[in-house]
TrEMBL record:
Keywords tagged on the record: Glycosidase, Hydrolase
Metabolic or biological pathway, per its Swiss-Prot or TrEMBL entry: Glycan metabolism; L-arabinan degradation
CDD domains registered for this protein in UniProt: GH43_Bt1873-like
UniProt superkingdom: Bacteria
Protein name: Family 43 glycosylhydrolase
Length: 281
């Protein structure tokens, strides 16, 4: 599994684990997304088929990075899709329960149709406005970026033009991939600290290895400006992470490591938070 994402379901006292689960996620015909269920993050039930495309679904490859968010009484999956001759993008799916089945909610991707995009995540600001935060991919722009777009209250379309938050080279620790071909931005995820500071997790490469970085919003809002932490929080060839709290109150970072297929697995790392700073326990 790549790109692990955990949904904590209070009413059931359990966790749902989603991720990129196709046997070959890089090429060939995609199958869908699976989900696992656990009460202790150690013993897992599943896999259960969370999403399987209908025959007329537009995308047939690169099913990546599903995130599931509880919002307004339903469960919304933000997931990356692609098809031959169509730009990669994040579409929003919906279901009545965390295990699915998820069905298309937005009319195709809500990211710009002429941009190669991936890894959309939901962020709801303090006014209750939903946003999608996503990456404009380095394969198209070389210096990958993280952008945000407002979403409709129904989460079925973007409203207005994307807003640039930062680019890969804004972080001093980022190195180029594939002999200088470009600079990667992957997997944004927003985390609000106890003191009100807003962090944004995202991933890139350092010295040839996948790494988990953190940006900090000066304003405390999603539009920043964003300041990059000088060092990744994890640089041992793992990333595309998110943070959640366990039922016992622990703060866990989950990411996949190593970054090689088919060896990648979800990893759970306990963190402590002090004055808006995160560190390993």
């Amino acid at each position: 599994m790549r790109d692990p994402f955990v949904l904590k379901q209070e009413s059931e006292g359990c966790y749902y684990l989603y991720g990129s689960t196709d046997p070959n996620i890089w090429k060939g015909k995609a199958i869908g997304f699976d989900v696992y269920k656990s009460r202790d993050l150690e013993d897992w039930e599943g896999p259960f088929p969370a999403f399987r495309p209908e025959p007329d679904f537009w995308s047939d490859t690169n099913y990546w990075a599903p995130e599931v968010h509880a919002y307004d009484g339903k469960y919304y999956m933000f997931a990356t899709f692609k098809a031959e001759g169509v730009c990669r993008g994040t579409q929003i799916l919906v279901a009545d329960q965390p295990v699915g089945p998820f069905i298309p909610h937005s009319d195709g991707p809500v990211t710009p149709h002429d941009w190669e995009c991936l890894d959309g995540t939901l962020y709801v600001d303090e006014d209750g406005t939903p946003w999608i935060v996503f990456c404009h991919e380095w394969v198209q722009v070389k210096n990958g970026t993280v952008c945000a777009s407002r979403l409709s209250p129904e989460l079925d379309r973007a409203i207005g033009e994307p807003i640039l938050l930062f680019s890969a080279l804004d972080a001093s620790w980022v190195d180029a991939v594939k002999g200088g071909a470009g600079y990667v931005t992957d997997g944004p995820y927003a985390y609000r600290c106890n003191n009100g500071e807003l962090l944004l997790l995202w991933s890139s490469f350092r010295q040839g290895r996948y790494a988990q970085g953190i940006a900090r919003s000066v304003s405390g809002g999603i539009l920043g400006p964003w300041v990059q932490e000088p060092e990744p929080i994890y640089e041992n060839d793992g990333g595309h992470g998110m943070i959640f709290r366990t039922f016992e109150g622990k703060i866990l970072l989950t990411l996949h490591a190593p970054n090689s297929t088919p060896d990648e697995r979800p990893v759970f790392i306990e963190l402590a938070e002090e004055d808006g700073r995160l560190r390993y326990v």
